[in-house]
């Protein structure tokens, strides 16, 4: 299991893991529910310039929510003691995931919708990375299991859910590492950047990683 924890004494580092997970869950839900298109649809509603007077309705809906979510993410990193370099590093770590997500969406939806959805996911991923940077994985698992403890009477397995959460968080940098390895190997061989020659090996390595992970869990009696 990969740990991305960076020791520190900031307010974010010292905050309880359960509180950080709860705030992150609220943040992710808000971004998912409120974020509309920043360029079309629920963002700028359009209007007509006639006779020197703009008769449009201006900004409407939730087009503002994605920029606000991005600003909150940047503020959280600064509060944790990380600068712009760390934010850029986290974005670059998932750049190929973002590219694949954006390109595949452009096949089916307009650019504004695809860009908004990709930006929404990127913001949540970068904010999730902040939790792994400021929280030890054992603390994260313990807080999750304690929070779900009362639900055992309803058949909930807190240990399994905590493990699933930890695996989900740590899988993102693993896939990002695969992407970096593939790109470095292609660059060493002089292979130009092509979506087809990049996505296929990334999918193969990701699927193999999931198989190895499933075998490791099965060997430990986990389903």
TrEMBL record:
CDD domains: EcfT (cd16914)
Locations listed in the record: Membrane
Top-level taxon of the source organism: Bacteria
Main localization, broad class: membrane
Pfam families: CbiQ
Transmembrane regions: 21-44, 64-84, 96-115, 161-182
Membrane topology per record: Multi-pass membrane protein
Assigned keywords, A-Z: Membrane, Transmembrane, Transmembrane helix
PANTHER family: PROTEIN ABCI12, CHLOROPLASTIC (PTHR33514:SF13)
Protein name as catalogued: Biotin transport system permease protein
Organism from which the protein derives: Subtercola frigoramans
């Amino acid at each position: 299991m990969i740990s991305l924890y960076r020791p520190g004494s900031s307010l974010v580092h010292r905050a309880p893991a359960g509180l950080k997970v709860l705030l992150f869950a609220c943040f992710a839900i808000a971004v998912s529910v409120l974020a509309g298109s920043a360029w079309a649809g629920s963002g700028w509603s359009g209007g007509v310039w006639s006779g020197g007077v703009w008769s449009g309705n201006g900004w409407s809906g939730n087009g503002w929510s994605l920029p606000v979510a991005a600003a909150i993410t940047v503020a959280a990193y600064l509060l944790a003691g990380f600068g712009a370099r760390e934010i850029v590093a986290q974005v670059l770590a998932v750049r190929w995931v973002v590219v694949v997500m954006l390109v595949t969406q452009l096949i089916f939806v307009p650019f504004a919708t695809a860009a908004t959805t990709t930006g929404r996911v990127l913001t949540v991923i970068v904010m999730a990375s902040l939790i792994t940077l400021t929280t030890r994985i054992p603390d994260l698992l313990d807080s999750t299991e304690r929070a779900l403890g009362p639900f055992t009477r309803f058949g909930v397995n807190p240990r399994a859910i905590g493990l699933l959460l930890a695996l989900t968080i740590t899988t993102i940098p693993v896939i990002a590492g695969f992407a970096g390895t593939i790109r470095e190997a292609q660059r060493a061989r002089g292979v130009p950047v092509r979506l087809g020659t990049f996505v296929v090996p990334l999918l193969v390595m990701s699927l193999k990683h999931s198989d190895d992970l499933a075998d490791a869990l099965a060997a430990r009696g986990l389903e």
